[in-house]
Amino acid sequence: MLEAVIFDLDGVITDSASYHYQAWKIIADELKIDFDETYNEKLKGVSRMGSLELILDNGPGKDAFSQEEKERLCTRKNDLYKELIKQITPSDLLPGIGELLKELKANNVLIGLASVSLNAPAIINSLGIKDMFDYMADAAVVKESKPAPDIFLDNIKGLKVNPANSIGVEDAEVGIEAIHRAGMKACGIGSVETLSKADLLLSSTAELSLDKLKAML
Ligand code: B16
Ligand code: MG
Predict the structure, then answer these.
(1) Which of 23, 91, 192, 215 minimizes the number of CB atoms within 10 Å of its CB?
(2) Given this model, what pLDDT does residue 54 score?
(3) Mutation choice for ligand 1 from 49, 117, 133, 145, CB with most ligand atoms inside 8 A
(4) In this model, does residue 206 exceed pLDDT 90?
(5) Same domain for 160 and 210?
(6) Is residue 118 classed as helix, strand or coil in its secondary structure?
(7) Is 169 helix (H, G, I), strand (E, B) or coil?
(8) Are 64 and 138 part of one and the same domain?
(9) Is 90 exceeded by the pLDDT of residue 105?
(10) Residues 103 and 172 reside in one and the same domain
């Protein structure tokens, strides 16, 4: 029996990845570090500081700046990002997500959010889907980022469900690993190059349906 579906946000519910990219690109350009959309793939599902360190690894290295300087760069990136996400409206839900959330609700399947983004609550509000969630993990209190299972385990605890009867939906390789380490089945949205370990791989959110998720268990 399918008890819960736990969603990643960025790349699954809405495409905030392009805003993360635009904000980081400004920082990387200022630091004269090469950074393009291909390299940006590595940042998906990775925490803010982890993302900065990956960018620095493509230049002077992650230890080239003091912790204080790195915090300042992260704050600046987040200020840029917060300006960009002001544009998000309910029309930015990825294809099929609104319908799937309604279908899950109608069938009493619990809905959780497993985003490591500290901006997730604001984005969920702007998308107009806050009321659909039975539980949303607070990224500020979940210590370890994906691929650690913590954010999914926090949902399992908050929703009071059995991980074996729950499915995680992710677009990042680290996210698929986190779902598996939480003892759940993983549905990947994306391509086989990065998500070959997913139990079900779909190329777009438009292909998601309750029946397909149920069939995974
Ligand atoms: P913030 P997810 C992740 O969201 C993004 O994929 C990742 O690129 C970002 O660095 C991270 O959130 C932290 O976001 O800077 O807003 O706290 O995929 O877990 O929904
Ligand atoms: Mg994601």
Answers:
(1) 91
(2) 97
(3) 117
(4) yes
(5) yes
(6) coil
(7) strand
(8) no
(9) yes
(10) yes
